[in-house]
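[Q] Does anyone have a clean structure-token version of this?
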Amino acid sequence: MAGANPDQSVIPSAAEPQFSNVLISNLDPATRKNRANTTGMEALLQALGQQEDGIRQGGGAKAIDAQHGKKRLTARERLALLLDPGEEFLELGLFAAFGMYEEWGGAPAAGVVTGLGSVAGRLVMVIANDATVKAGAFFPMTAKKVLRAQAIALENRIPTIYLVDSAGVFLPLQEDVFPDQDDFGRIFRNNAVMSAKGIPQITAIMGMCVAGGAYLPVMTDHVLMTEGSGLFLAGPALVQAAIGQKYSAEELGGATMHAEISGTVDFKEPNDHLCLARLRSLVSRLGHGPPAPFDRAAYDPDRDAPRFAAQELYALLDPDPAKGAGNSYDMHEVVARLVDRSQFDEYKPDYGKTVLCGYGRIGGFAVGIVANQKTHQTHTSQSGEKRVEFGGVIYAESAQKAARFIMDCNQNLIPLIFLHDVNGFMVGRDAEWSGIIRAGARMVSAVANSTVPKITIILGGSFGAGHYAMCGKAYDPRFLFAWPTARYAVMSGASAASTLVEIKIRQLERGGKQLSEAEKSQVLESIKASYDEQTDCRYAAARLWVDAIIDPARTREVLITALKAVALNPEVEKFNLGVIQT
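[A] Here you go.
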């Protein structure tokens, strides 16, 4: 017809479905079960918060007073002056060494504070010795915590600030701090590598910096030093013992000497306050590297907020370890509270439904999400047979879908986020006949060779090979966070305890001891209690298997900070899969 709109035929009528990628929510926080979950999560968070407050006290009131008596601030007081007011500090490794070194009086937070914060508007990594904990001495976990912070800074090209106030290696444990590849010396190696890659590093010496640790500041771009601090390879007592010469600490390695005679320090400052002000001024002048190739849309925190309240996430999981393994919930509810405007383009939603994959944005950043679906799903086999697939279990078709999705994200330069609540891969005759090992290997290969940034969050269980396939610690996630409900091990506590108790009973019976049912029950409870302790997220965080335990309601904010960090590195290696079973 003359004058007709040529595109009229493709305009949908009001009666036809309209495109929408906005997730809906069926979560009712008011149900009895969900109220109980919320109450349990709030109690768990309160208990964790009390433990965190205790850790942040460092060596305690007496040690804090001693630090102030030297006219020095504590590590956390220094951070308060260094970081931009009102900006969130994402502390990493707070639970490091938790419950460890008790024979030496403990080492809260491993005697060092690390994390991501804003200084003069720039995202930086901060590594600050806590001199209230054994004079800032390095325990084995102290070295590992500093190395983890450096690894994050190195992989993401994050400017790094060191606030040095340390007596050096904790000598009673020197054999576990000094010689190995992931020990104290690796810190200085990382200084050199970071410098060679153009990652800015600035050190402020705000106390003692002795022995091998004296190399750290001199291997960074700028060295600041406060009056009354000391920088020397050997202190006065060691010099006198070694070569018989007697000097004061100031004469041997004080700020004035290094500023006027050795020329080692760039800036000598009267006190902590002015040193930190100088440091902020230097950071404000750092140049900006090339942008990363990841897409980020214009972002407004209010306009682009999810449609559903983050606090409602408390209602999803039962935090009781005895019941948590049986948690059943729709992972879409989590995603709807993480992605911008709750908009999510789900990939192959009707196939391999126990793993959920799809595209969204978080803080404006385009992301691909791989998550375990925790509700049971119906599946139709190629022969037409219908079966129920268990939530939290990876089946062959789920692994195939996830592997393909991960490849697509690498092809299109989209960072990946993994949300764990996985029991492992499916077992049994049908699973083996479906090629579960081959499909699982394909998924593991895709994760292992993925070159776009990967960020992992463990929400609930993360057991067996499922932990690997969902980008566990061994698969180099840029960051790995855990909810307080996170638990991971080779298998769940109940399954492991049953297996271990059978082994224990057989050992005792071979030795001629017959156990009564009450004794068997006692053995079971003892083994289960020990196993549950080792799968607790605090046990993992103490050993730096996770970077931080986070409040579920803050998951989105933590992810936005992590995405800002990974976007500082513009380099993405070519994605190659290698040999995979087809």
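[Q] Thanks! Anything notable?
[A] The longest helix spans residues 32-56.
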